[in-house]
């Protein structure tokens, strides 16, 4: 199978504090990986390194056949190929939903307004909110905003999608609408890395589950194995906390 | 001192600098008087502005609005020229300047302080009330200590506005730094051209103001205050 | 005792003409000074926050110099000092306008910079994650949000600056204050003249605030105060 992401002995420090400790991970095209672990374990930092939002000190990061430079010099080459969805949505409040989606395709890919608009509408339909296209983000509910954020990333037609706790900032009753959208997306064959504690989602969608703690990958397993027979004590402890 | 300066920059420029510096003391006196006087009146109006009694509050709002909307220059003209002519009284320039700058300062100070009070979370008032504190005690023990902290940097910063404001008083013949600067600058004497004198005058004002600007900024950082938030609160009211 | 004779102000046609002309000049100066000062201010704010020392230090020096000295000194320097340095006299209106623009720009720059600092980090991060370049992020993401945030402060500053502009009458620019002084010098009713001027300034500042606030709602319809 074709490799989409390859992390080789990745190390990163914030000052003297090591956030990522010899990370090795290879993800193939169309694979779905869920990353979980306690807060502060470096999950966000890891996926931010994947799309060159963070510089790193040693090791190598290969994404879509491009080697990410440590200092982020070729960052935009990576970022236009990788979509990302944030915990806090980070929609642009001053742009309508449609403009949120079309800005990057127009400016980065050089599409015309019409082309970008058509594409954006296509993806807004995919996330089931085409009727909100002309509204401003502040007029939408949290769940709707997060679905717009997904559509915004998809309008760039990325080769893979990263999700950083996309449902953590949502009211419990709208979590499902976002998860359903992500499940739909998974079914289209998109390569996905999701940092999430939604274990139901992991069971349903993930090919592999990665457990991180203190900057290290502790355990990688299929969801069945991960949930039924976790090998590490820390994984067992974490699961008992999350699954209640 | 003057002799030393003479050897350094020549007798003419030493004399000029001495004149300007001696005029600067009047700028300083006027600034201090206006700041203290304006601060006291401003404090009174800040308190009136938040009393529970409706008409007093309205009166305070009207006062603050009025003296914030009146240009300082007009206050100077009114007190220094208008009133003396109209009432046939003699108003010395220092008095007109002091009154004008005090009124000007009081209005802006109470606006800043009101902003500081308003930026305190309503929850703090409610918490105080829940503890059984009345309005005055609540204000005294719960609200003002917090507001004071927020208000200090912009208060120090406003001192800069007051100093700059005093430069207008020359227009009613107050003998301050600006008046002498203008006199010398217009004197057509070689070595006292406007492009020498006015930068020098500017430098003296700068040396008065900039330390206060820095102090205000330092306080802001050490007290960890978001001045932008306060700025927006103040502007909403104005 | 109180014998107010406001009619003395519009007694002569030339007085009325000077007043109307003065109001027009004051408004024109504010519009020009406001727009040019804003553009300078934007450039200054960008330079001030730049990583390049060659841009950052001169702009910081300029901003601090202007903010810590009185407008009147700046005005005299620009109107009397600069023409001697350049050995070229241009009209006082132009000099006064230049002084106002420079003055406004320093105050605006400081406010705009506060706006830049206050745009959430997540915004530029999300833009980076979409592959947008540095300049695009500044122009399309950070700038509009920064301006919306500080717009009320810019309006207040504008009105505050308006109230300080009367001093340009000192260099012979025939603004509203100049018109008042012209009339008072001839009818000797200083008190009434300056009362009327005071009211005119208050009304104009209310008008400016109203127009600018309404403009803000048109330009930033999406903005919600937090
Ligand atoms: N910009 C930063 N500077 C310094 N430390 C940081 C920074 N960002 C994150 N960290 C630290 O790195 C660790 C990992 O953070 P993060 O990747 O956000 O963890 P997670 O997403 O798993 O909760 C945390 O201890 C956090 O405090
Ligand atoms: Mg995280």
Automatic annotation (TrEMBL), chain C:
<keyword id="KW-1003">Cell membrane</keyword>
<dbReference type="GO" id="GO:0022857">
    <property type="term" value="F:transmembrane transporter activity"/>
</dbReference>
<keyword id="KW-0472">Membrane</keyword>
<protein>
    <recommendedName>
        <fullName>ABC transmembrane type-1 domain-containing protein</fullName>
    </recommendedName>
</protein>
<dbReference type="GO" id="GO:0043190">
    <property type="term" value="C:ATP-binding cassette (ABC) transporter complex"/>
</dbReference>
<keyword id="KW-0812">Transmembrane</keyword>
<keyword id="KW-0813">Transport</keyword>
<dbReference type="InterPro" id="IPR010065">
    <property type="entry name" value="AA_ABC_transptr_permease_3TM"/>
</dbReference>
<dbReference type="InterPro" id="IPR043429">
    <property type="entry name" value="ArtM/GltK/GlnP/TcyL/YhdX-like"/>
</dbReference>
<keyword id="KW-1133">Transmembrane helix</keyword>
<feature type="transmembrane region" description="Helical">
    <location>
        <begin position="68"/>
        <end position="86"/>
    </location>
</feature>
<dbReference type="GO" id="GO:0006865">
    <property type="term" value="P:amino acid transport"/>
</dbReference>
<dbReference type="InterPro" id="IPR035906">
    <property type="entry name" value="MetI-like_sf"/>
</dbReference>
<feature type="transmembrane region" description="Helical">
    <location>
        <begin position="20"/>
        <end position="47"/>
    </location>
</feature>
<dbReference type="InterPro" id="IPR000515">
    <property type="entry name" value="MetI-like"/>
</dbReference>
<feature type="domain" description="ABC transmembrane type-1">
    <location>
        <begin position="23"/>
        <end position="212"/>
    </location>
</feature>
<feature type="transmembrane region" description="Helical">
    <location>
        <begin position="193"/>
        <end position="220"/>
    </location>
</feature>
<dbReference type="Pfam" id="PF00528">
    <property type="entry name" value="BPD_transp_1"/>
</dbReference>
<feature type="transmembrane region" description="Helical">
    <location>
        <begin position="92"/>
        <end position="109"/>
    </location>
</feature>
